[in-house]
Amino acid sequence: MTIEQHTEAIHKATTLVRELTSANLEGWSPQGEKNGTKVYTKEDGKLIRGDYVLKTSSFTYEQCAAVATSTIVRPMWDPSFDKAEQRRVIGADEGLYWVKCKAPWPITPRDFCVYAKVDHFKDENCILVTMTSVKDDQAVPPVQGCVRGTLHIAGWYIRKDPQGIAITYVNKSEFGGSFPASLMKLMASHIPQTIVRVAEFLTNYGFPPLHHSACITKESFDQKKMAYEATIKTDKPKDVVWYLAKQMYPKGVAIKTSPAALQDKVQVQTSENGHHRVTLLQVHQPVTITMKKK
């Protein structure tokens, strides 16, 4: 598929996620509540929805969305997630990904070709995240040792709430190939708990290094050292800004740049709720920046 075809697919998927995460629960079958998450299903249980309210005043809905969408910290809160690579960069909040998920032995791991898009609705104090499978064998070819699954639709609707942050998550997926029905049912039952894991991560660790810059071409994160590294390429001078959680960096942030001559262009400030604001001033050449705990 071309980028134009991907764009059409994600537009349809975004419209669907907007509908599925709305306050209208007509057609949804209530399945009870688990760990604070209200669970609903459609389509004979294949389409699953979870609703949760995180009672907090320490974080914003944008920071919560960063936990839900960041592939660099997802292995820390999602036991089924293996890895992800961005294969096509469409913008700061849009792209094509190869995603690999773990599977219990002797099941073959599953992988997915996923188009993901994040929409910010400032006037509504919310973020809508849409993910759907597309076919793009050039950018995301079949991988030996994996069975290609299909993510029919998945989405996050994360918004400001009087009690803190309201989170809605929907998912409909197929794992492809031969997959035991009992195991599929078990994995499906865990989907609503994805929300709880995001909330727990946010409470314990804060949010991952957060930015909205399309000029960041590569990111990595060392979970043990809480070390973040980003590569930046831009053709004109601009400031690049990150927000780092005080929970993740309680004693501050140690920063290095390569080339080292750009070290004096780094500015660290304290932002709202005591989090760290890191600015790389007027970047106009390729640079790699590393941030670690002090």
UniProtKB/TrEMBL annotation:
Q: Which residues form the signal peptide?
A: none
Location of the START domain: 17-185
| This protein's name | START domain-containing protein
Q: Show the GO cellular component annotation of the record.
A: cytoplasm
Which one of the record's GO molecular function terms can you name?
lipid binding
Question: Would you say which domain of life the source belongs to?
Answer: Eukaryota
This chain's source organism reads Lichtheimia corymbifera JMRC:FSU:9682
Name any one Pfam family assigned in the record: START
